[in-house]
Amino acid sequence: MTSFSNEPVPHASWSEARENAAPTQRTLRLTTLIEGLKNPDVLACLQSTRALVDMGENAVAALLGVLTEPNPLVRFVAASAIAEIGADKAPFLAEALKVLNRDVRLETAWGLGLTGAIGADVVLTLADALKDKSVSVRLLAVWALGQRGVDARLAVPALAQALKDSDEDVRYEAAAALAEIGADARDAVPALVEAFKDLSKEVRSHVVWALRNIGPDAVSTLAEALKDPNEEVRRHAAWVLVNIGGDAVPAVLDALKHPSQLLRFQAVWALKNIGPDAVPTLAGALKDASAEVRFLAASALGEIGSEAWNAVPALVEALKDPNNEVRSQAAWALGRIDPRVLI
Questions:
Q1: 332 in any annotated domain
Q2: Which domain holds residue 249?
Q3: Hey, which of 55, 255, 301, 304 would disulfide with 59, CB 3.0 to 4.6 Å?
Q4: This model's pTM is above 0.70
Q5: What separation in angstroms does the CA of 255 have from each of 102, 181, 258?
Q6: Any idea what the CATH number is for the domain that residue 258 is in?
Q7: How many domains does the chain have?
Q8: Is the pLDDT of residue 302 over 80?
Q9: pLDDT band for position 246 (50/70/90)?
């Protein structure tokens, strides 16, 4: 005869039951949402993408699998979803940059551009992608590096090389990325100065921006560029030196002694635009052995105007210069700075 215990039969609580069922429910939902990415209705596809992003890390493995889908839109939204879930998934995306399918590389580079801070390994993978045979992949890789700012410093050599890319847009984005990196891009200065010769005005404008952001570390190379036979190079070098400011004054002053008349006038223009920071150096140049340098220094001081007031004693002394033109220009400068001195 079977006996029955009066003890209650153990059973799972509702909360335990829900916990046990959660992985299965999550898997089913994940499968449904991944299929939703393939929906030809773009709105439905994007809704699935948003839901997958909301699932966070639980969706990453499934999304990585979608990067091999034949449909480019599906790959695109999968890469963007992984990127949005978190920067710590960037290494997974970086691996996808190495696959044979060009479109996968393309969408992966775009996805990496959307992530937050990324590690050195991902930066170097993106830098390597700048050699990709596909222009589109190179373009998105260089754009992604530009989104990283100073965190992309390890890519500086590759970005410097990208300034010679056959595609104008890649060169443009490479200069822009170096500008975002700033002072840490100092090793790219020679390549940037060489890029002053780029046929694209847009590329040259970003090269100027990059050198200006690099700052004082670019001065010595820019000073040499002031002597370049290419007028475009000289003009842009002078403009960047102006924007760097006081640290660039000695380099620009040296250009006042160059045999090229055009370059000497560019140097005066640069010193004038540097402004008060250039005044002490220009005042000293009023005693230069070259009468033409003394003349140009007086001209620059006059162009600076009232802010060059501390050069007045040197200009008064220059009224005794043995060269008539220097004396005349010193008087003109004094009249611009403080006419009362001449009364």
A1: yes
A2: 245-343
A3: 55
A4: no
A5: 50, 29, 5
A6: 1.25.10.10
A7: 1
A8: yes
A9: confident
